[in-house]
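Example for tutorial group B:
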């Protein structure tokens, strides 16, 4: 639940500032914004607000207000007269959008003086924007009468949000819903150099926000790192690395011609950069050169999130839980486990691996207490846990802490944010590999990145990282995303020809279904991984 709350809070905040980026640049260039919503609001909204005549009007759990639209006609007649008609018979026909007979249309044209509505192939009417000349016909409590004022709201579907910019064909507005003549306050009436920052505003704000987050994190908390040079007990390698020639306890001193400083360097250089030449020190004396296999990155991805490389450290008990197997066996704080079932265990990871073989079974432990070697026999449950809290690796390995002053944290935060973006872009290529596609995750995978216990440092680190991801993913040139709009704008700048609005409408529809398919695929992977735990 804590992970879910952190995920929703983080994404909600990032979506709001993303859409505020679009909103701000739209208002700078005099473009109206019809609606600004956190979360989506099909049919109704949790809350809607609009400033009218200097006062805010608020509505809770009410059906959505119609967009600034009217029924499209084949002449200058005005259907708003019909909308406001009190005749129940005519009103009923309008509300149900029932196609009328030719005789009925003629009677309406004669009695109400407006043209025949244009209809879709379904028989339902088409819509166009309400023009200034239509506004006096609307009642004072009709929010459409005040198109210059933005409607703010919170929807009930907690997936993203949107900023409905007037005169823009996107996920909120189709080409049919635009008037035939661009208005000066519409997005489509602006020049390309004005439209471009409106589109890029969301991505820009997300990226700048990430740099600010990283700078603030460095200034407030500083950094704590565990250099590879301080790996006193060597490194613990996953099965994938053992098959490449590594041995438990090796220390990596070079990857290619670069010297790694942290575990992050190992992952970035060996998997993301694809560097295959690795130099290790074995037994604190011998220098060994290894060459990784060509499909090494696929082997690591296929491991399904298993630990890549970890620091080795002794298994020393810090606390014994009451009524646990360790408590029954009279194990105490400070006991250091050196063997499980007669198999020597040199580190915490060895103990954990051996214990898994004794689920619902008895096992003999060998441990050291005050310099004396002792043994104990105990019965483990189905989870094969001792019921102890071991000492953390930082109690055996020396970490390095660094504080940053205010002015020092800004360039360092910008450097860290840029490096994070570069690494993520490089990593993105793996999505198009067989194992990369299988490892693609949805909301559950993202949520699992947050800690299970609330921690503000981890929360803001993850929020900064997600802000980087949101900026990058939105600039990908897929129709309906910001990058798709940028692509069409660049085309217009180069060719001096504006893409047809109908074409943009179709492109956005295609982009929507592409994103929907990707969403289903990624969350489907999450579901498969979850089900695999039970079968």
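The residue assignment follows.
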């Amino acid at each position: 639940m804590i992970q879910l709350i952190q995920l929703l809070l983080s994404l909600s905040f990032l979506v709001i500032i993303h859409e505020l980026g679009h909103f701000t640049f739209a208002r700078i260039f005099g473009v109206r914004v019809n609606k600004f919503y956190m979360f989506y609001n099909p049919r109704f909204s949790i809350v809607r607000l609009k400033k009218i005549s200097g006062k805010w009007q608020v509505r809770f759990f009410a059906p959505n207000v119609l967009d600034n639209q009217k029924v499209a006609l084949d002449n200058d007649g005005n259907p708003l007269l019909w909308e406001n008609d009190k005749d129940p018979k005519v009103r009923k026909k309008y509300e149900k959008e029932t196609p009328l007979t030719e005789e009925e249309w003629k009677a309406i044209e004669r009695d109400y003086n407006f043209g025949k509505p244009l209809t879709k192939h379904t028989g339902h009417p088409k819509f166009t924007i309400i023009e200034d000349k239509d506004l006096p016909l609307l009642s004072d409590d009709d929010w459409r009468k005040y198109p210059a004022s933005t409607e703010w709201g919170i929807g009930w579907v907690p997936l993203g949000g949107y900023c409905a910019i007037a005169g823009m064909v996107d996920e909120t507005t189709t080409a049919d819903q635009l008037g035939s003549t661009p208005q000066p306050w519409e997005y489509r009436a602006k020049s390309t150099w004005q439209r471009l920052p409106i589109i890029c505003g969301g991505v820009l704000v997300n990226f700048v926000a990430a740099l600010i987050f990283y700078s603030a994190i460095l200034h407030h908390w500083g950094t704590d790192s565990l250099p590879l040079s301080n790996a006193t007990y060597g490194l613990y390698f996953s099965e994938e690395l053992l098959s490449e020639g590594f041995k438990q306890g090796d220390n990596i001193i070079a990857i290619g011609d670069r010297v790694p400083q942290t575990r992050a360097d190992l992952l970035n250089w060996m998997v993301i950069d694809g560097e295959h030449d690795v130099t290790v020190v074995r037994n604190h004396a011998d220098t060994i050169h290894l060459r990784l296999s060509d499909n090494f990155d696929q082997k690591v991805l296929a491991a399904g999130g298993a630990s890549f490389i970890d620091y080795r450290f002794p298994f020393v008990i810090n606390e014994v839980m009451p009524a646990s197997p360790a408590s029954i066996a009279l194990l105490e704080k400070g006991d250091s486990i050196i063997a499980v079932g007669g198999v020597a265990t040199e580190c915490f990871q060895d103990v954990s691996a051996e214990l898994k073989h004794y689920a619902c079974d008895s096992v003999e432990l060998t441990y050291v207490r005050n310099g004396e070697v002792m043994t104990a026999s105990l019965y483990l449950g189905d989870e094969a846990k001792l019921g102890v809290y071991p000492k953390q690796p930082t109690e055996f390995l020396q970490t390095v802490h660094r504080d940053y002053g205010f002015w020092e944290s800004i360039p360092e935060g910008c450097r860290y944010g840029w490096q994070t973006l570069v690494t993520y872009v490089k990593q993105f290529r793996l999505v198009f590999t067989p194992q990369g596609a299988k490892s693609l995750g949805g909301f559950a995978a993202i949520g699992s990145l947050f800690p299970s216990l609330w921690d503000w440092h981890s929360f803001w680190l993850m929020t900064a990282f997600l802000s980087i991801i949101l900026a990058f993913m939105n600039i990908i040139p897929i129709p309906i995303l910001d990058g798709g709009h940028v692509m069409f704008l660049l085309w217009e700048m180069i060719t001096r020809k504006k893409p047809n609005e109908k074409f943009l409408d179709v492109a956005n529809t295609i982009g929507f279904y592409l994103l929907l398919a990707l969403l289903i695929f990624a969350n489907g992977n999450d579901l498969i991984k979850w089900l695999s735990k039970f079968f």
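The mean pLDDT is 84. Compare this with the pattern of hydrophobic and polar residues in the output above.
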